[in-house]
Amino acid sequence: CTFCLCLETLVYDPIACWIWNKAGWNNLMGAIDYAGGTPVHISSGTAALAIAIYLGKRSGYGTESLKYQPHNTTYVVLGTVFLWFGWFGFNGGSTLSANLRAAHACIDYCLGLVAITPAAGYVGAPAALVFGVVAGTLCNFATQLKFLLRYDECLDVFACHGVGGIVGNLLTGLFAQASIAGLNAPPQARILGGWLDHSYVKLAHQLAESTAGFAYSFVVTTLILWIFHFLPFLRLRTNEEAEIVGIDENDMGEFAYDFSTDPERGHDNPPLSASATAIH
């Protein structure tokens, strides 16, 4: 709880002020972010990367005991549906009113989720399809970064949220349209579009916002972790025994999935479906 409070106060709040406050430097520069591409996704994804690098690898990392296990495909689909539905309130509600612009936001978010967050109220549905295809492809490739760079981040928070937020911000600079943004905005709150509206500098604004958010979140999160390191009662890393047996068993006395290892055959018992997808 203490870490979350520090992260929200020292990382999220300043970045949100940059982009959503009328006097924020990102806002004055001309960057646009409808529902939190930088404050929500880039900041949290980068914080996860900083935490993974600072805390280091788990005990047993790279061994058979910590290999990625197959997952129940039905649960993956069901969880995606729940997440998808919840995003209606997240992005659609960011317009702070019930109107045509909110309807556009709800349609668009379905086609891009994380990547569409900064653009949901600024782009049309055809552009949202591009967001979904491009971000889905790049984020999928980004899940391999942890193997390439050898950091231990089993939930792929950076690959999904960090990379997804950056991609969404940059695509916003290309596809944002003043006609969509102005559906319910007063004249003084209307924005310049992106490349589709021949505002070519918008991409540079979006790149500056993304870079600043990434750098600020990484540095401040690392500083918070460094300070916590000197406070024994606030250290975030669990003990080695808990890492070996698993957090589920150590903290709750049970497994989320009843995986067991057969020492004679050297694989999980009972056998798992070959069609199951891997946890990332």
From TrEMBL:
Membrane topology per record: Multi-pass membrane protein
Residue span(s) of domain Ammonium transporter AmtB-like: 2-105, 112-257
Pfam family for this entry, one: Ammonium_transp
GO CC annotation: plasma membrane
Segments passing through the bilayer: 34-55, 75-90, 119-142, 154-176, 214-234
Keywords: Ammonia transport, Membrane, Transmembrane, Transmembrane helix, Transport
SUPFAM superfamilies in alphabetical order: Ammonium transporter
GO molecular function, one term: ammonium channel activity
Region called Disordered, residue ranges: 259-280
Cross-referenced PROSITE patterns: AMMONIUM_TRANSP
Taxonomic superkingdom: Eukaryota
Localization per record: Membrane
InterPro entries reported for this sequence: Ammonium/urea_transptr, Ammonium_transpt, Ammonium_transpt_CS, NH4_transpt_AmtB-like_dom
Similarity comment: Belongs to the ammonia transporter channel (TC 1.A.11.2) family.
Entries under PANTHER family matching the protein: AMMONIUM TRANSPORTER MEP2 (PTHR43029)
Protein name (record): Ammonium transporter AmtB-like domain-containing protein
Organism: Rhizoctonia solani
Organism classification: Eukaryota, Fungi, Dikarya, Basidiomycota, Agaricomycotina
